[in-house]
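Pair request: fold both.
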Amino acid sequence: MFSPLSTETKSTTIANKLEEMILSKQFKAGELLPSQKELALQFNASSRSVREAFKNLEAKGLIQVSQGRKAVVKSNNLDQFVESLSISMISKQAPDKKLISDLLQVRTTIEVSASRELSRDPNRMSVVRQLAKCTSRLQELLPLLEDGMNAEALQQFKQADFDFHSTLIKSNDNMILNSIYENLAPQLYSVLDKTTETFTEMKKKVNEYNYLVEAEEHGQTDLAVALTLVNLTNIKDKIEKLDL
């Protein structure tokens, strides 16, 4: 049985859940997905929401949809999608909101997967210590940021924040990550650098990172995933407010 729907739109929730299951090979390449009717019942959603979710997955090269037939899993990775994003980035002088939204979606999928797998990895402590080091650095910088005047400390805070996410994502080593961080991440983070946070928001973020590190350390998978999603959702909300 699938998880209950969140506050996201139903089509997005369905697409994200199916994408997660495809990337984790719960549905392998060549296998059929449940019918649209079955998915609509399982997610308590309309057929239209399921169709929209399928369009999202098909655009990423994960499934193939044929009229009158069940959708078939086309690939268990996002290589095709990442390659198309790379070409789009190269062809444009500046990223638009649609492209950044796609990048954030890819990053969310991979970072959530990395968070989940790290919590289950018996040899995770070396990565957990690296994450803890990043959070300690963020904590050290907080007192310098309370008055909002220390530009150098702010840049150092952003770098430590970047290092935290980079460490987490790269703990789930695969070709997709290499492609994203070598070709796409610089463009994405140039946009992220334009977002602003209040001191209260930064303090809250550091607390959440500390909780995440503890969850990873103790193998609390559900909590680690939830905290990762909270942070990434906050980032998405801030980027959507930018005038790109």
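--- second member of the pair ---
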Amino acid sequence: MFLDCLLIRKSTTVASYPELYFFFLGGLLSTFLAYVLLFFKTKTSLHLMSLSALTLYTIGLSIHNQIQNINLIVFLVLMNGVVASSRLEMKAHTNKELIIGFFLGIVPQLLLLRFWL
């Protein structure tokens, strides 16, 4: 979280790269929420959290720039499934932890999407 804060404050600014700024801010919020959930003894899938955030960011970027990245979006959605399946197969997470991780990645990006879209 410290490195994400440093990146947001020093490297990526709202004026220069608003899309990246809000993407990293959403990532910071997701990471903070996953950290808070640890105090309630709730584990989340950080792999799925980051991949779902990237998927939603790519969809938003496609809308923002008015280009069709359909192949990339389909690939990322497919990779969400592959990552979730592999985490289940390796018995690293339960279904509940994967769902929490997925929504922790999506919800902050959705909330911040309106600021740069």
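Observation on the second member. The mean pLDDT is 92.
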